[in-house]
Amino acid sequence: MRALFMACALLTGGSVRGQGDILTEDVTRFWEAFDALAGAKDHADSVGIIRERYLEAGSEGLQRFRKVRDLDPERYVEAIAAAPAFWRSVRANTLNAGAHAEAIRHVLDRYEEQVPGFKRPKVCFAIGRLSTGGTVSRGWILIGAEIVCADSTTDVHELNAWLRAVLRPTSQELAFVAHEAVHTRQRKGPRLVWGYLTHRLLLMSHLEGTADLVAREVAGITINEAVHAYGRAHEAELWAEFREQMHGNDISGWLYQGPRSTDRPADLGYFMGERIAARYYASEPDKRRALRVLLRGGAARKVLRKGGYAGP
Q1: What SS3 class is residue 159?
Q2: What angle do CA 12, 206, 252 make, to 5 degrees?
Q3: In CA terms, which of 83, 140, 149, 297 is 20 to 30 Å from 194?
Q4: What order do you get walking across the sheet with 122-126 strand by strand?
Q5: Any idea where the domains of the chain sit in the sequence?
Q6: Which pTM was predicted?
Q7: Half-sphere exposure of 102 (CA within 13 A, CB side)
Q8: CB neighbours (10 Å) of residue 186?
């Protein structure tokens, strides 16, 4: 059920424009709560501070973030205690998230110009609990600033290997917004549910891979440089493995593994989905029509069949 929820969440979009289209107030609010932890009497008091001063006091965007990513105050306290050097080192970068607002608007402008039917969402930067860089809710892109704003100055020695790989030497704000913006445009419907029930791995890889492809084609950026570098170097063997599994419902070896993937990068389903989508996109002379097809949540099998991807 978690994967079905994620599939539906990926495809939830809407249109919101005007003042306050890029919100960073929750980042400031988090650090105010963080500072208040120094006066906490005990663990329960710390949990209460995060809950009351940050989560419950947050913007509409943060409330949406809480619902789609289970932002529990207990987990925040655990994450802060486990990596104090990380949190101290990433603070200044997160508080500077608003500095990229105009560049983000420019990316969204390009989507409005080039992606059929794109409706401009709001963007909310908040502090998560080191569990997600970005997601979407109806009319919103929700960004975990502690992940996307990290850079080479961030102390990562307390983090697990997966998080160390996810965090990059430079800010990923634009790349995450570009990726999540595609998810706000992807269409849901009965075919998506059918795909979830019958060929979940191909469906979910299509959703994520298409987001990577469109972000690269329209905005020229991707959130998955390391995944794609590994994928290109091992494409033939990955395709042989993926081909045998893609019409099944087990996504555990390809998507959302996080630190559970120890022998190769996590999320290689993004790469396989992008390769399949890219072959279809290249084969279609009418690129706007191709984008419309790619953005249909239930079009995974059609894209594979018509594009003819069969490995490198």
Answers
A1: coil
A2: 95
A3: 140
A4: 22-23, 122-126, 140-144, 134-137
A5: 12-185, 190-307
A6: 0.90
A7: 1
A8: 24
